[in-house]
Q: What sequence folds into this?
């Protein structure tokens, strides 16, 4: 059950099946979260917040067995799902696009303050929190875009 949930309901294994590597698995997880968040657009913002709470809880629980020795297996994508969901709470339209893009880029490149530091935390917390911090940057960028473009 941990493997099923940690892999984003097996979405994290798609790249391995397609090209024999886990490269890009996080983007597949983020894409799943983006699809879920699109379905939440007509609902109140707090439903998206609830989806994030569920995702971060599932990430912390499901990643723990795979987090030994600061490991972060590529196929574990529930953390990317949580990070993407926090990035888009309450956002729609172009601000939503900005939030998703910034969160994903912040997670991939880990150059923004706090992202790499969060990754260094022990166990499932480290696996999850770098994506959440990246998602918070995405959220800030998305809300800034909302202020600018409405």
A:
């Amino acid at each position: 059950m941990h493997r099923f949930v940690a892999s984003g309901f097996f979405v994290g294994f798609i790249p391995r099946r397609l090209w024999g590597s886990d490269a890009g698995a996080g983007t597949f997880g983020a894409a799943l979260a983006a699809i879920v968040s699109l379905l939440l657009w007509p609902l109140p913002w707090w439903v998206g917040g609830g989806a994030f709470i569920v995702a971060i809880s599932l990430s912390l629980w499901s990643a723990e067995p795979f987090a030994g020795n600061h490991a972060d297996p590529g196929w574990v994508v529930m953390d990317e799902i949580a990070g993407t969901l926090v990035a888009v709470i309450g956002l729609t339209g172009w601000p939503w696009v900005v939030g998703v893009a910034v969160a994903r880029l912040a997670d991939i490149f880990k150059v923004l303050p706090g992202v790499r530091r969060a990754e260094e935390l022990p166990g499932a917390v480290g696996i999850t929190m770098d994506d959440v911090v990246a998602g918070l940057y995405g959220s800030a960028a998305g809300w800034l875009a909302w202020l600018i473009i409405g």
Summary: The CA atoms of residues 98 and 139 lie 8 Å apart. The two ends are 42 Å apart (CA to CA). Residues 2-149 form one domain. The chain has a mean pLDDT of 97.
